[in-house]
């Protein structure tokens, strides 16, 4: 997250003043391309900045917040799953700056297409986070911590669980000496279709058609693979109830 | 399927000689742009062609095969789920010509990127189907009926079930007044990642990290939504077993 935000902010001509990490090497590596100061003690973070962005794993946010008390600048974390309140003792201005995307270090994404979800403890914090967001993304939306929790949950379905289904499909193929390449165009098209349609309208397949003959044939093929069979039965049932 | 194949074959300079449908209007509509003859009686299909492609729903293939006995040209169906043997009385040369893609009438796809899976009852049928496939696709592969059944099953996971997860995510969002647009870039990126990586390497999220705190928070949010909760528990368990 730090890597991606630093690159996006730098590209939008913001100044990355300091990079903090407990690990000096990590701080230096990220600071270097931006001529930023690397610091490995959190007390060395300056207040003379517009914003301090906390880009750490969810379970480390609280510990960082404990060390960032009574600051004067805007402070925001970047997590989808953690409520804003964790920052309430850090500054009079705090909030959340959550880019909703699956980010892998070193693999740049087009940040302008990444939605950024913001939340501020007051109007000033909110406006500043929105303004910052708009310099690096085309989609900036102010939502509550409650909405963000559900958005993060929905993202687990659309990203992590979807990938788990791809992995199940890959296993089925490899058991039958078939390359995963055969499914790649279908996976692209499936994701492409819902870029315009709502997924309810894009649904196809034997479950939607209530094609019990094909469903039973598939269940036979899954005999002896209890996990795949459970997934098949559950998702078929869910689709059938909707159609 | 008929619409897509007719357009792809025409674009590759094949002649669409005849289009048969029980519904004269449908036959005429598809035949017209190709200057083909529309026929509404299957007996009127000529043997003086290279191939007759059967593009009907799975449960209609057998009925069509019953009416296409003792022909002399190559006859192939285009289904992923039906074994080749259903055509054994139609001709000395028969087989399967299965384009693996989610096709919607009227929405053209780049057919060259669609894998075509072929099977023939003998070498001559196989070679003819492979040659035909190569004129419209970059990926043509000869597989057995047994392999094709499993490939079709894997496609249900990667396409129909994936779309069902998109729909669950969309419901979560709509319950909290959030637009599905927020997830669309994530869905694209998730499909994009596995175009190069195997899905096992692309897996991320709380289940992979065994982040029980987040998992429990998500399960709380799903309280009272038993189907979504079942999906969450099952896919989380499957991911956790792998990592």
Please tell me about this protein's structure.
Two copies of one chain form a homodimer. Chain A has 243 residues and is α/β, with parallel strands linked by helices. Chain A is 46% helix and 12% strand. Chain A contains ten helices and seven strands. Chain A has helices at residues 2-11, 24-31, 61-66, 123-134, 145-175, 184-193, 199-202, 206-209, 212-221, 226-242; strands at residues 18-20, 37-39, 51-54, 74-77, 94-99, 116-120, 140-142. In chain A, the strands form two sheets. A five-stranded mixed sheet of chain A has the order 3-4-5-6-7, with helices on one face. A two-stranded parallel ribbon of chain A has the order 1-2. The longest helix of chain A has 31 residues, at 145-175. The first copy, chain A, is elongated and about 70 Å long. Chains A and B meet through helix 5, helix 6, helix 7, helix 8 and helix 9 of A and helix 5, helix 6, helix 7, helix 8 and helix 9 of B.
């Amino acid at each position: 997250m730090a890597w991606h935000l630093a690159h996006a902010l730098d590209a939008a001509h913001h100044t990355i003043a300091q990079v903090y990490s407990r690990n000096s090497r990590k701080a230096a590596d990220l600071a270097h391309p931006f001529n930023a100061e690397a610091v490995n003690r959190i007390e060395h973070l300056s207040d003379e900045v517009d914003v301090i962005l906390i880009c750490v794993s969810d379970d480390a946010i609280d510990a960082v917040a404990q060390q960032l008390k009574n600051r004067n600048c805007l402070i925001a974390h970047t997590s989808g799953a953690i409520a804003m309140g964790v920052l309430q003792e850090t500054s009079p201005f705090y909030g959340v700056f959550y880019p909703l995307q699956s980010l892998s270090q070193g693999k740049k994404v087009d940040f302008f297409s990444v939605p950024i979800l913001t939340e501020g403890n007051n109007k000033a914090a909110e406006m500043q986070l929105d303004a910052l967001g708009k310099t690096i993304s085309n989609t900036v939306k102010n939502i509550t911590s409650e909405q963000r929790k559900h958005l993060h949950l929905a993202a687990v379905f659309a990203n992590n669980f979807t990938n788990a289904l791809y992995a199940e499909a890959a296993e089925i193929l490899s058991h039958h000496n078939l390359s995963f390449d055969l499914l790649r165009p279908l996976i692209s098209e499936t994701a492409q279709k819902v870029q315009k349609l709502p997924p309810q309208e894009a649904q196809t397949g034997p479950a939607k058609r209530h094609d019990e003959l094909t469903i039973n044939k598939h269940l036979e093929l899954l005999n002896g693979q209890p996990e795949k069979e459970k997934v098949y039965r559950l998702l078929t049932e869910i689709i059938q109830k909707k159609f």
